[in-house]
Design a protein that fits this description.
The protein contains 14 helices and 13 strands. Helix 9 packs antiparallel against helix 10. The longest helix has 18 residues.
Length: about 425
Amino acid sequence: MDERILELFEGITLHFINTKRFKTDFVAAFLFADLNREDVTKNALIPAVLTRGTEKMPTMKDISVYLEESYGSVLDASSDKIGDKQALQFYITAINGKYTFENEDLLSKNIDLLCDVMLHPKLENGVFDAEYVKQEKETLRELIKSRINNKGAYANSRCIEEMCKDEPYGLYKFGYEEDLDAISSENLYAQYEKLLKTSEMHIYISGDIDEEKVLQQFKRHFENVERHYDAAAQSAGASNSHELKTVIEEQDVTQGKLVLGLRARESTLLDDMYPLIVYNAILGGTPSSKLFQNVREKASLAYTTRSSYLKHKNIVLVSSGIEIANYEKALELIQKQLEDMREGNFTEEDVSDAKIALENAYRSYLDEQTAIINLYMGQQLLGNVEPIPEMIQNIERVTKEEIVRVAEKLELEIIYFLKNK
């Protein structure tokens, strides 16, 4: 499933994933802004306000009726962080027109709606509708507050915050409650206009599509958008601090959440990416991993334990849910798994099993349009766009020696523990 990339205008790129594999057409638009403390909360609020209404469809009810009448098309928007970028994401999907009763061109209609949401929001006195902003501020406030409800995700997020305290990546992706009161219709609209002018934009279209027709349609929508895109603007890099930090946080919990953060400091993102992917699979990315087998199954020191590789930051997180009284034992045994990886105390069979699991995971991306788009989008930010067969080949080429080499580069930077009061 190849990707064809075309520059629409400066800083606005179209990505065509033309395939007959699905009965649906999927369009996803991403606006990327540098993560910073001043704008993170506003940026997180903007997608929600934009989907409240457009010039042509000024209410959510209008949009909902349109989507229902378009064979149940789905529109969604959100905010996330990817590396040191904040991503404002807009999605719309519907069945391909050839599967409708009258061969309706739903893709064109949905592209029009998506562009209207992004470019022509419902305004009041030249700025965002004040009532929409007020309501979405309260929704975002509750979302930020609810962060604490999922203790595992909360512990991972807090570990990253402490580990990357002096970096953009340390910011919470949905922003901060204390910022909300100062956000108005006027300053939020000003931030929206700034994003339209300066953000790097990538638009993905997946399905059985007429590329030239889609290209011309997007040109019509974006040709009058004022742009001042600066490709040279970059976010700050990693902190230079190497000192191991231990953070213990207390809440009303019955199960402890232990998270270790490691970073491959003497490593470039692309050169060591595939060895680190295989390393992570062996360490804690599969049911046959060292963490799962030794910490959970054999020693019974964890209810859950896994590792994850954050490739845009060269960070590996080891996350475990444990009995609070087992903190010292669990920490010692987890560190033993890390040391084993550095010393090459794993087998060629472990390497083979990890590669098989990874290759199956990559092939599974081909079965879901959202997954393949997110995969390609992540590659785009790394500057390394590869088709899935090539990615699988790169996984297959990784040697045990390369895995040990990247394991030696990983430095433990933080031990985070969420425990009871």
